[in-house]
Amino acid sequence: MTTREEASRANERGNDAKEAKRLDEAEAEYLRARSLAPDFDAPWFNLGVLYKWQARWPEARSCVERALELGTENRAGALWNLGIIATAQGDWAVARRAWTEYGIDVPEGEGPIQMALGLTPVRMKVDGHEVVWCDRIDPARAVVRSIPIPESGRRFGDLLLHDGAPAGHRMLGGREVAVFDELALLAPSSVHTYAVTVLAPSRAAMEKLLRAFSKASLPVEDWSDSVRLICEACSVGRPHAHDAHDEAERPWNTERRVGVAAE
Q1: Prediction pTM value
Q2: Spatial distance between the Cα atoms of 205 and 212, rounded to a whole number of angstroms
Q3: How many CA atoms lie within 13 A of 230 on its CB side?
């Protein structure tokens, strides 16, 4: 067996270990592959992805940049990862260059990239389950516009760094949009989350209360309506009805759990 073949096998073992979430083992195999064949681009690329998920930004960047130097076959993926990593580091010149080379039309400038890419769902890293709606302000950053439940550790207005690979889908205005996984909290919000139990005799009464909060410029969310538990297949794929009751209108529950975002 040649040295390159040994490196290729080590790289594959690393992939298997990463898939099984044995990350220390995956790192060791990728490092072995890289040591055996320093000009083999795959372990460099894979280490870059692994370090990205671990928020080890300097190591992630050096690996991704080396993979690009070696002419990795997944150049698009490497450029996207470089854009994410440079964003995490606040290196806006490199981030702009990476997004531009990828094919995204980003505004010129020297500071943070500001775009209006619309609402996007992001799965928060803290619990790995709750998905919130966010304003996407560049290819890798989004501002939370839902009011996450307090247990999630996230708040309305948090600035999140997110990945670029779709990790499920949700519906928005009759069209399907991709869910992205959070990578890191870049800037915490200044507001707090208040959980309130409300007794509302009717939907009309609840809507009146929500309008009052809105008039006072206080973000509010009726969690009893907006938060629903779904199976893992739905969460990482496409939510679907499990039985006929899912599609039927549920009876009004007078006891509501409401989230309010306020200073």
Answers
A1: 0.87
A2: 11
A3: 21
Q: How far apart are CA 237 and CA 240, in angstroms?
A: 9
Cα 92 from Cα 99, distance rounded (Å) = 10
Count of the separate structural domains present in the chain? 3
Nearest to 134, CA basis, from 247, 33, 210, 123: 123
Question: Which helix (H) or strand (E) segment is 219 a member of?
Answer: none
| CATH number for the domain harbouring residue 70 | 1.25.40.10
Residue pointed to by tokens 């076959």 = 73
> Does 111 map to a domain?
no
Q: Which domain holds residue 236?
A: 192-262
> H-helix or E-strand containing 117?
none
Q: How many CB atoms lie within 10 A of CB 99?
A: 24
How would you write the pLDDT of the chain (263 residues) with one tens digit per residue? 789 999 999 999 999 999 999 999 999 999 999 999 999 999 999 999 999 999 999 999 999 999 999 999 999 999 999 999 999 999 999 999 999 999 999 998 889 999 999 999 999 987 657 899 999 999 999 999 999 998 888 999 999 999 999 998 999 988 899 999 999 999 999 999 999 999 999 999 999 999 999 999 999 999 998 875 444 444 455 554 444 445 446 789 999 999 999 98
Query: 10 Å Cβ neighbour count for 189?
Result: 16
Whole-angstrom CA distances from 49 to 6, 82, 99, 243 are 21, 10, 17, 39
Phi, psi at 198, each rounded to 5°: -120, 135
- Closest Cα to residue 156, out of 129, 193, 116? 193
